Each structure stands twice: as structure tokens, then as C-alpha cells.
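Structure first, sequence second, as always.
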């Protein structure tokens, strides 16, 4: 088994399908020193890099696909499979189906409200409801992640389930703008955050070598919910109206959240120095800071098509039913994007695959959506391709961040990353809505903004990958 110490080498590598793990102490780094014929020799300046709170160690070769490969990290042996581990993945998938399912349905909610209850408000004003929702879904992780590391997932998931159910149940009685702002933006955002962080972090307690694959499977729940909820609402709105359509969605979520509460659990004991307080010192690590900035740029653009794709379809003369179905098509592509690249990334490198899929989103936005106009074929193709690429961005983000820390601080790192990212989500939707208003209902400005955000994200991830693994393209990282 080939390995390299991150603390001494200053460059983190995947070698022969292996991936970077984490180290809790300098002693752990010393135990894992080894020479690597495959890896390049770092320069002296690289050896001087010091990351006080962000040590890493190589956990060895990737599993070969069998359960029980037993990758190790921080002295822990990871199951890498088995009934208990996959039940946690099932619980996370179920929780994400409710939480991310609602997040992936905001385009349908936005389009309906813009034509009904909130028809007298501008697109930019309505966008603040959903930007607040997405912002809180990510921002609150700054506190929730450390609480998970110190206390575990049980109470967090329970509280999130209560908030999610109340949010969806109360949508039906909202009539004024501030009602929707509180019920969808505040309650829904808090509930999503309380479910999302434990759902992602718990998977990391059971998988190391196969973490990208397992996280991708769990993240598929958001895509499944993003297919089911839009199609369900499309069918229910004309039959039972807004109130009962959203209540039925709430009852579906109640079942999914019950499964999540029963199955999501942590495995590793809290660190001796665990604290429920956020730790912003981790931004001293340049690799983590660049990665977080890249994800920020992704989220700045990601929620633009999720929010406005249905409205775009209506503006191009597509039927209301088909416009809602565009989101289902988008999330169908996202389903495969969250699953397939996660499997490949465990063998070819998480950052490598992230860079490829961010480039896919950029190209699809500029080459497909921008010139699409009223072409059904181009719009559907964009929804599928962008959905695939953006789905992998979502599922690979926790896996990339997980390479930069010890597993017992995984919740803190993921949550801190998403807290910064939340400001991108907060700004992206209202900016896109304002661009739509300035362009007098034409979507070219909104689409160009999405492409620009992904261009910046691509550049940042390339720089992060070079910083962490060097210039060699063949390095598996």
C-alpha cells in the first residue's frame, strides 16, 4: 500500500486509487511516512507548509468494491459497507429526499406564486423568499456542524423534521408576502439545514475509501424528491389547489423524515476537544479556503436555473405543465450526476471529477441554454446536461472537503464551508431576478450571470487542485 504524509510532504495525493485522509496529530503523520515512486518530490518551500488544525494522512488504497475493505483514518477502521452503514445511507437519502427535494422544487413554487398569490410583486422581490430559504439552509450549518461533532445527529434531525413539516403544512394558509417569507424562507430554511448537515456528515462516519460513492447515493435523495415533488404539485394544483397540494407534500415529507430519524446515526465518539462552537481558524488552510470559494461560486449560479427554469419555459410559450416538467427533467439528470461521478471519483480523484463536471455546467449554460430560445430540444438537453453536472457538484462537495480534515471534525468542516457558500445562494437568486427585470423579461442576462459564476468556480477549483496536488494532470486527487 502506497502512502504519503500530508504534514511532511505539503502535497496531498491519491496514489493507485487511494485518497487523502486526515490526521489528528503530528505523531500520526510520522507513523505514515513512506516514499512514493509515483509521486513527485516536493520542493523545500512546500515542505515548510504548516497547517496547525488541518493535518492529513493518507488512508491507503481505495477499496476494490467489496464491503469491509476497512480503510483507516485517525486510528479508526471504517466499515466501508455492511447493513448498518447502508441503513445510515438510506436514512440520509430519505432525509435529503424531503429537504433537498423541497429545495429542488423552489422553481415550481416560485412560478406558481408569481402568477397567483404574489402576482403583484416583481421577480426580484419574490426571489428573496427563496434566497432566504437557501441561505439559511446552508448558513445555519456554521453552528449545526460543531453540534453534530460534539453531540451527534439525533436531536438535530428531529428538530429539522419538525420545522420542515410545519413549513410545508403552513404554506397552504399563507396569503401575504411576509407569510411566505417566514414559512418558506425562515422555517423551511432552518429545517433543511438541521437535516442536511447530519445527513451528509453521518455517512462520513461509516465510509472513507468509498465516501464519494456513499455520499453520492445519499445525495440522490434530493434528485428523487426533485422529480417527485414537481410532478406531484403539477398534477395537484389544478385538482385540489395550492393549500391541499402543499399539505400532501408535507405528509409525504413526514413519512420520509420518520425514516431519516430512525436510521441516521453517528459511529465515532466525539473528539476529546470537541466543541459546539464554530472554528473559523480552519480557513488558514489555503486548500480549504480555495475549495470553499469555488463552491461559493457554484452556488451563486446553481440556484438560478433551479429557480427560473420553469418561468423560462412559460416565457418561451411552453405549456405550464411542460414548464414544471422541465424541473423534473433537470432533477432526473441530477440523479445520475449525484450517483455516477461519485463512484468514478473514488478511483480517479474527487477534485479531478469536480473540475470536469463544473466545466460541463459552464459549457451547457453557454452552448445550450444561452442560444436555446424557444427550442424545446435545446432546453431539454440543457436541463439534462446541467442537471447531471450540477448534481455531481452537490454530491462531491462534501467528499472534497472531507479530504481536508479528520473525520471527527468532518461536520465542522462541511458546515463551515456551506456557511460561506450560503451567501452565494442568498445573492444569486435576487441578482438573477433583478437582471430579468432590467432585461425586460428577457433571460439572456440571467443566463450570462450563471455562466460567469461557473467560469469563476472552474478557475478556483483548478487553483485549489494545483495547490493541493501539484500541476501533474495524471495525479489522482
Amino acid at each position: 500500500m502506497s502512502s504519503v504524509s500530508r504534514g511532511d510532504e505539503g502535497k496531498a495525493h491519491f496514489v493507485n486509487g487511494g485518497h487523502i485522509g486526515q490526521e489528528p496529530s503530528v505523531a500520526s503523520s510520522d507513523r505514515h511516512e513512506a516514499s512514493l515512486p509515483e509521486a513527485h518530490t516536493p520542493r523545500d518551500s512546500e515542505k515548510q507548509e504548516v497547517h496547525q488544525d488541518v493535518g492529513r494522512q493518507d488512508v491507503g488504497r481505495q477499496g476494490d468494491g467489496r464491503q469491509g475493505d476497512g480503510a483507516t483514518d485517525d486510528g479508526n477502521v471504517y466499515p466501508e459497507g455492511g447493513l448498518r452503514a447502508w441503513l445510515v445511507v438510506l436514512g440520509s437519502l430519505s432525509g435529503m429526499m424531503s429537504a433537498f427535494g423541497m429545495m429542488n422544487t423552489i422553481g415550481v413554487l416560485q412560478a406558481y406564486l408569481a402568477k397567483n398569490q404574489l402576482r403583484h410583486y416583481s421577480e426580484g422581490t419574490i426571489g428573496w423568499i427563496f434566497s432566504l430559504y437557501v441561505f439559511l439552509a446552508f448558513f445555519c450549518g456554521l453552528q449545526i456542524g460543531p453540534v453534530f461533532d460534539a453531540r451527534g445527529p439525533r436531536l438535530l434531525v428531529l428538530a429539522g423534521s419538525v420545522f420542515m413539516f410545519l413549513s410545508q403544512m403552513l404554506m397552504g394558509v399563507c396569503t401575504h408576502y411576509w407569510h411566505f417569507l417566514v414559512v418558506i424562507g425562515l422555517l423551511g430554511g432552518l429545517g433543511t439545514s438541521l437535516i442536511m448537515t447530519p445527513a451528509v456528515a453521518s455517512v462520513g462516519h461509516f465510509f472513507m475509501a468509498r465516501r464519494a460513492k456513499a455520499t453520492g447515493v445519499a445525495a440522490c435523495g434530493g434528485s428523487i424528491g426533485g422529480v417527485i415533488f414537481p410532478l406531484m404539485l403539477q398534477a395537484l394544483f389544478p385538482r385540489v389547489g395550492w393549500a391541499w397540494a402543499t399539505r400532501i407534500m408535507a405528509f409525504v415529507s413526514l413519512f420520509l423524515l420518520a425514516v431519516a430519524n430512525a436510521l441516521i446515526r453517528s459511529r465515532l465518539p466525539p473528539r476529546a476537544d470537541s466543541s459546539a462552537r464554530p472554528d473559523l481558524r480552519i480557513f488558514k488552510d489555503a486548500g480549504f479556503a480555495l475549495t470553499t470559494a469555488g463552491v461559493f461560486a457554484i452556488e451563486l449560479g446553481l440556484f438560478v436555473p433551479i429557480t427560473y427554469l420553469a418561468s423560462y419555459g412559460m416565457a418561451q410559450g411552453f405549456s405550464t405543465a411542460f414548464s414544471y416538467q422541465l424541473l423534473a427533467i433537470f432533477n432526473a439528470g441530477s440523479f445520475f450526476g449525484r450517483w455516477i461521478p461519485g463512484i468514478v471519483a473514488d478511483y480517479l480523484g474527487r477534485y479531478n471529477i469536480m473540475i470536469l463536471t463544473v466545466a460541463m455546467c459552464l459549457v451547457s449554460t453557454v452552448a445550450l441554454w444561452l442560444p436555446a430560445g424557444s427550442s424545446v430540444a435545446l432546453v431539454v438537453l440543457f436541463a439534462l446536461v446541467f442537471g447531471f453536472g450540477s448534481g455531481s457538484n452537490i454530491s462531491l462537495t462534501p467528499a472534497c472537503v472531507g479530504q481536508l480534515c479528520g473525520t471527527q471534525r468532518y461536520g465542522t468542516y462541511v458546515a463551515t464551508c456551506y456557511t460561506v457558500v450560503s451567501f452565494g445562494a442568498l445573492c444569486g437568486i435576487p441578482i438573477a431576478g433583478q437582471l430579468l427585470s432590467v432585461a425586460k423579461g428577457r433571460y439572456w442576462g440571467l443566463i450570462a450571470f450563471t455562466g460567469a459564476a461557473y467560469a469563476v468556480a472552474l478557475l478556483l477549483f483548478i487553483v485549489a487542485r494545483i495547490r493541493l496536488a501539484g500541476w501533474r494532470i495524471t495525479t489522482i486527487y
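Margin note: Residues 14 and 475 are 7 Å apart (CA to CA).
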